[in-house]
Amino acid sequence: MSPIRSALMAPLAALAFSPSPAAAQARAPGPPPIPAVSGPLALRIVYPLPDQRITAVDSTFLFGSTGTGAARLFINGLEIPVAPNGAFLAWVPIPRDSATAVFRLLATSGADTAQGLLRVQLPRSAVRPDTGSWVDPATRSLTGIVWAEPEELLRFSFVGAPNHVARLGFPRDSGRRWYPMLAEMAPATAIGPFNRDAPRPEPRETRYTVLVPAALAESDSAAPNHGSVLFTDARDSARGNLLAFGHRLTLIDPARRPVVLLDDDTARTGLTDGAVAGTPEPNGTYHWFFRNGTPAAVSGRRGNQIRLRLSGTSHAWVSVNDIAAWLPAGTPEPHAALRLVRLRSDSQAVTARIALTGRVPFRLDEDGSRLTLRLYSARADADWLQYGSADPFVTRMAWEQPAPDEVTVAFDLARPVFGWRTRWEGSDLILEIRRPPRINAAAPLRGRVIAIDPGHPPIGATGPTGLREAEANLSVARELRGMLERAGARVFMMRDADTNVGIYERTNLAERVNADVLVSIHNNAFPDGVNPWENNGTSAYYYMPRSARLARLVQQGMVRRMGLRDLGFGRGDLALVRVTWMPSVLTEGAFMMIPEQEHGLRTPAFQRAYARGVMDGLAAYFRELAR
Fold this sequence. Notes:
The protein contains eight helices and 38 strands. The protein is α+β, with helices and mostly antiparallel strands.
């Protein structure tokens, strides 16, 4: 065996990752051995596809199969391990001498030879000259349609060659003043969610930045491409070039902000979750969920992202596609008074009617045994908080006015939050607070309603020998269904065939059947640039705080039964776990692209181990809930 082959084989052995001795004693041995396949030599690359643009800039993975375990495979001269069934996963350096990376593949088996040439496109930001006065137009921070208020500071920035001087000017500025831009050094890459350790540092890049009042940058028909950068070499001012930002800025009068109506189902398909996601910055992480029919004032725009003014201190960004209507000019900004909170009880939930004088944006947060409703652009005029019958589930209600235009209403519960949902009825906000189910600790799964979502299709990952994630997920889900039903649970499958089901069709079904828990079964794949040998393993994800314990217990069960490396559990901004009516967890049991794990997912024994681990976690969760 060559030294290169020996070095590349080492990560394969590392898949039998050994954690602490105590955990290792209880852990399964992992996927079953891969049987030998001695078919004809057939070189097939599953990923990446020809001419695909990848995001990695240093090293990347290629995977596929050779058709036979007797093959030897070389990529750009490096020998790559081939599994007994012909599958391979390569982690190779990226040639960076142009905008296109070329990988030359050579496979041999006895006297047979197969060759391949794979070209992929590199990220534009990765292809930058080592010398010269260059700028990267793709890194401009402000282009296209922009709306802003006059005194708002706009951030203009871009990445360019180091050791330069950048100045920003505007054609409408009669004095043609130039605003100096600050040069900041920053690494080109950062640690991502799949990196167990910090990635290898990429070369640092120079970003030039300046803040300018919006009133100075307003566009007009005579100069649609506003904001020009004079970019010159600090050592030779004669060398340089000009960069146009090309934004079209419109100023918004703060006294007459436009008002919009939010709705994520403008096509009336009924296949959404009925809420518009808001983010703290354009195209950022979801943080607000505004119910359909919520009005809001507009204070800015960046491309297809609209900024909402929630209150004097709070703003959120939404997609322009989530705006159902622009209300007539002169419509006043939403504002409401909180008049009354009244509770009503039934066997399933306690329902709070929050009486308001109008609809306003809101957010609901949960913390242990407390739910806190925050109403934006609102004031409190609530003389009464009515508990109704002597239901012990809601132990206390209280309101506060933490800001002149924000009101909070807190609901303290006798038990930790289990689920909730909201809707508008006229101008009243209806909040249903779900009761936890009654559980028999000796048989914690008996009578439980479990919604199982076999993740995908559409899309999904594909393994080196062609196993589709949708197939693997369904096989595991069927095993899990059988185990749960034998334990006395009622199971609802989101799909039981290779059919496309929309994301919100799945979550809506779980709510309609009043599931106690939603489990979404998945298997993982890496983004470009993540070393698959160092970062693979088992993980589980939740979104709502109440689901964190469920994710931890399911993760422990999977790791113990499947025997793969423990990548831990975490909070993930994933649609299948954002449901509010029940605890939910999304599992990533194995990695489709790892040959051993892909083969394991084809075998009934490993599928049962995956399912058994999830079931162990569910049983432990309900057993704890019973206490």
